[in-house]
């Protein structure tokens, strides 16, 4: 999309006064109006832009697609089905032209306090409020939120910004407005196309599902584009600021509801680094966890991607994320059939739903995946440099020893060790064998403390994270060894206990 730029003088002369308000619903609507106008900043939106939106709305608001959307976002009372077509059009024109009418209330607008309010509104004009009658929870017992005409008009921007996903509207609040604008640019094109199809066919389009997947999917392209942007230009930074929050809401009178999904700053920073610096490994993981749309849903926007969904669990569920998405490709080197077995188990868990067909892709390169894992450890786990270096060094030295000695017995013991005491015993025994040959031990006191201890006396609470990472590094180095010890000793690994990866869509379900 191309964006029109204006001079500061032109902006001041033609501006309606739109600006960011830091309220999720209002800012989502403002982003919708701004993108519809082809502008980069809300301050650039003019009366002619609103007029163009009104022309669009009068053609498409009464299609099955938008009628369903209105019932969820503004309730059926906004354009009541009992109204005549003429009255519906009059109501719509009155709302969109509200910015042209006087603001006569003696109180400021809740979102543009520099303007007086025009009327007190309820849920048929602003989602998630109460109805017109109840007085509870309002100052002075006066129901409704005071809004200026500009605010009432701007709210209609939700129609070209907030898609229905799994029957509820998606409203996103972002610390960095560039993220919000990028999402709306992506979604608005699809929403306008759906409205046009509905106008021509007199029917609704196939439904979207998986709100968290839709958000991450919408961010991927702008995150990649930022890789080529200057680090700083007029206050703009290459990395997105902060995180974002998804509000998955329904204002329907039959069941108002909202679910909130925060995407933390570390998770967004990790996603951005993965897209910019580790795209090959990241794309392979995405393909591995992509699920086809269910019957009757949009074949593209009905897909679910497990690794996208689980980004919303970070950083709290970092260990589970690693075990679920980053570790299985390493395990698959030992027993490739584990992936096929997992698909069968997963199909049973998901009532036959299977991994989405995808074009043939090269298998994930373990060296690239280890680099992505290292980024994950730095940005999500906040692992200190000494611990990460200790993991890499011990893994490298163990891999060299196993390859030199063809000691697959030691490899099996290390890989199958589950408990802390068992793994420590194996490492100490191997270190003792090295010392007997006048070689330095694998596990010095300093390395042991870096890997497994917090301070001098307390074991690390995340021991299992260190255990899994050590195994991943060991496999990666053995796999890269040109002598191919894992291939040459394949028979010795046939019955090794490889955990079956869990590829079910997401820990929190599809909705």
Descriptive keywords:
alpha+beta; 21 helices; 12 strands; 4-stranded antiparallel sheet; two-stranded antiparallel sheet; CRISPR-associated protein Cst1; 511 residues; disordered C terminus
Helix content: 40-55%
**General form:** elongated
Largest sheet, described in full?
A: 4 strands, antiparallel
Radius of gyration: 28 Å
Distance between the termini: 31 Å
How are the strands of the biggest sheet laid out side by side? 3-4-7-8
Number of strands: 12
The poorly predicted ranges are: 232-237, 343-349, 357-361, 505-511
Task: Round the mean pLDDT to the nearest integer and report it.
Answer: 86
Strand content: 5-15%
SS field, number of helical segments:
21
Oligomer: single chain
Q: Class by helix and strand content?
A: alpha+beta
Walkthrough of the structure:
With about 500 residues, this protein is of the alpha+beta class. The chain contains 21 helices and twelve strands. A four-stranded antiparallel β-sheet has the order 3-4-7-8, with helices on both faces. This is CRISPR-associated protein Cst1. It comes from Deinococcus aquiradiocola.
């Amino acid at each position: 999309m191309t964006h029109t730029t204006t001079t500061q003088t032109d902006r001041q002369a033609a501006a309606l006064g739109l600006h960011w308000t830091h309220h999720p619903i209002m800012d989502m609507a403002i982003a919708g109006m701004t993108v519809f106008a082809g502008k980069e900043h809300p301050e650039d939106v003019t009366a002619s832009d609103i007029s163009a939106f009104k022309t669009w709305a009068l053609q498409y608001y009464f299609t099955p697609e938008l009628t369903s959307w209105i019932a969820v976002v503004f309730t059926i009372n906004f354009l009541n089905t009992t109204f005549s077509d003429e009255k519906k059009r009059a109501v719509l024109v009155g709302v969109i032209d509200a910015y042209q009418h006087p603001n006569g209330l003696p109180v400021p607008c809740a979102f543009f306090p520099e303007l007086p309010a025009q009327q007190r509104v309820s849920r048929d004009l602003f989602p998630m409020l109460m109805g017109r009658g109840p007085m509870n929870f309002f100052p002075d017992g006066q129901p409704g939120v005071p809004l200026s005409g500009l605010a009432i008009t701007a709210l209609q921007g939700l129609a070209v910004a907030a898609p229905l996903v799994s029957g509820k509207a998606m409203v996103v609040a972002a610390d960095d407005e560039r993220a919000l604008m990028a999402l709306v640019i992506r979604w608005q094109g699809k929403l306008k196309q759906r409205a046009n199809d509905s106008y021509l066919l007199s029917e609704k389009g196939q439904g979207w599902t998986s709100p968290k997947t839709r958000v991450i999917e919408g961010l991927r392209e702008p995150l990649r584009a930022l890789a080529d942007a200057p680090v700083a230009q007029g206050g703009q930074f290459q990395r997105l600021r902060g995180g974002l929050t998804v509000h998955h809401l329904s204002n329907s009178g039959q069941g108002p509801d909202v679910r909130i999904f925060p995407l933390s700053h570390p998770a967004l920073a990790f996603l951005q680094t993965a897209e910019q610096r580790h795209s090959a490994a990241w794309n392979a993981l995405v393909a591995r966890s992509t699920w086809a749309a269910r019957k009757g849903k949009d074949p593209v926007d009905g897909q679910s991607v497990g690794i996208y969904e689980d980004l919303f669990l970070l950083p709290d569920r970092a260990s589970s994320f690693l075990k679920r998405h980053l570790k299985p490709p390493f395990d698959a080197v030992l027993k490739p059939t584990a992936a096929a077995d997992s698909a069968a188990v997963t199909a049973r868990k998901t009532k036959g739903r299977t991994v989405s067909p995808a074009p043939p892709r090269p298998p994930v390169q373990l060296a690239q995946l280890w680099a992505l894992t290292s980024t994950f450890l730095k940005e999500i786990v906040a692992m200190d440099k000494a611990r990460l270096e200790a993991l890499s060094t011990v893994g490298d030295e163990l891999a060299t020893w196993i390859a030199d000695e063809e000691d697959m017995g030691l490899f099996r013991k290390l890989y199958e060790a589950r408990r802390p005491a068992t793994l420590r015993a194996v490492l100490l025994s191997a270190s003792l064998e090295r010392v007997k040959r006048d070689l330095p031990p694998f596990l010095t006191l300093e390395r042991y403390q870096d890997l497994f201890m917090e301070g001098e006396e307390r074991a690390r609470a995340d021991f299992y994270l260190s255990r899994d990472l050590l195994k991943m590094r060991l496999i990666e180095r053995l796999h890269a060894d040109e002598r191919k010890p894992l291939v040459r000793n394949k028979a010795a690994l046939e019955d090794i206990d490889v955990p079956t990866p869990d590829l079910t869509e997401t820990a929190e379900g599809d909705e």
